Amino acid sequence: MSVAFTRWPDDLAARYREKGYWQDLPLTDILTRHAHSDALAVIEGERRVTYRELNAQIDNLASSLQRLGLKPGETALVHLGNVAEFYITLFALLRIGVAPVNALFSHQRSELRAYAAQIEPAILIADREHALFASDEFLNSFVSEHRSVRAVLLRNDRGEHDLAAATAKPADNFVPTPTKSDEVAFFQLSGGSTGTPKLIPRTHNDYYYSIRRSNEICEFDARTRYLCALPAAHNYAMSSPGALGVFLAEGCVVLAADPSATLCFPLIEQHQINVAALVPPAVSLWLQEIQATGSNAQLASLELLQVGGARLSATLAARIPAEVGCQLQQVFGMAEGLVNYTRLDDSPERIIHTQGCPMSPDDEVWVADTDGNPLPQGEVGRLMTRGPYTFRGYYKSPEHNASAFDINGFYCSGDLISIDADGYITVQGREKDQINRGGEKIAAEEIENLMLRHPAVIHAALVSMEDNLLGEKSCAYLVVREPLKAVAVRRFLREQGVAEFKLPDRVECLAALPLTPVGKVDKKQLRQWLAERALA
Fold first, then answer.
1. Model pTM?
2. Statement: residue 459 has pLDDT above 90
């Protein structure tokens, strides 16, 4: 049994194999190749895990999962934060051919239920440290609602669901059963603009190539000490080159719960970290800390700072080499596939002012107008792409796929870009109705639909507003039956189980929402009002 997904056409699949992009190896090879290494793989607080120990714990958990009755081709819902168990769980599931969705630790009831409804997981793996699982109330209702769930394992549980016990139990005659390399290994999360979270099937072949090629460009090797302070489940922190790239190179991943300077600066100094990956808001916080203390001495070991997840302003970019004291690399990628990097030997001008160029010779990228026609070089339009690691369709979403892909299988990401003569991309904005709050993507439609459940709300529109620290924040414009304060709106959304970062930063009540000539809410006008108010 295997997970159904949209495959690459036979001619392209043959080309990608012929060129060596697809090597028909399971993702588990990233770690099993280092199964006998005593090099450090993961540092988490006081915890140290070598590659030998990591592989043994993965085999133990994989064997326990098999004893629980999990079979190749089934799915799992995983809800873990920046802890070693995230990687142990991921690779254990890969070794027995179970495809996980790795929910972000910031996700709440709404997101977990939406993912479970799509994949019908056989197992839920979560953490008692998360408020949702501190008691059994949500757990019991979740299992009752999603009948496919046959097993539950929980980190920090001392009872029947103890993940640690399952990881400690020795593997007895364990035989790995990974899915075939051209089948779905796991699902990534889309930052799309529609109300229902979309899932992105990633195969062993396409994802492994993305990691290998990223390592080549970013020059990760056994001496790489990588700070993972962004959510471990993010595509960026997993594979660009991310923790999986570090593991492939036999380097060391140092985990941090968040990217704050107060937490990360001492870690960088203590563990002599030489690579870190951030989103622009975190960069601002690091620069503020350096200015406040007048020193970047704790960052002396840092050689490369990757910045992605949202567009980095040229002003901020120019400050990084001078104030942080290391090389900057811009990363513009997407969970759907395409990844662009500035190269380590690019000119400072190019690194500061562009978001890099595609990493694969077979990344096909072009710019389209609103009718899908190619635009001349340098003009701004929709990003269109396909390639050896860019997916061919969202999971169980035929209607959405019909509009997200053109007839030739090119994916329209919703990004507005321009491409220069050398193939370097500059991101100009987003076409889709999506808010990028410090690298966390908010689908406006999702939050609008939830706000409309409030008995006092008649109409709702969520739009972005510029913010110096986060890049964008959200503002909810509401038409209401009775006065409604922002705190009440946020409380209501929390009660709906929405992640904290999705709550509106600002709430405005209007007599009526402005409309376009065809009767749609005029969000351009709403954003204009916000911009004018900011200038007033």
1. 0.88
2. no
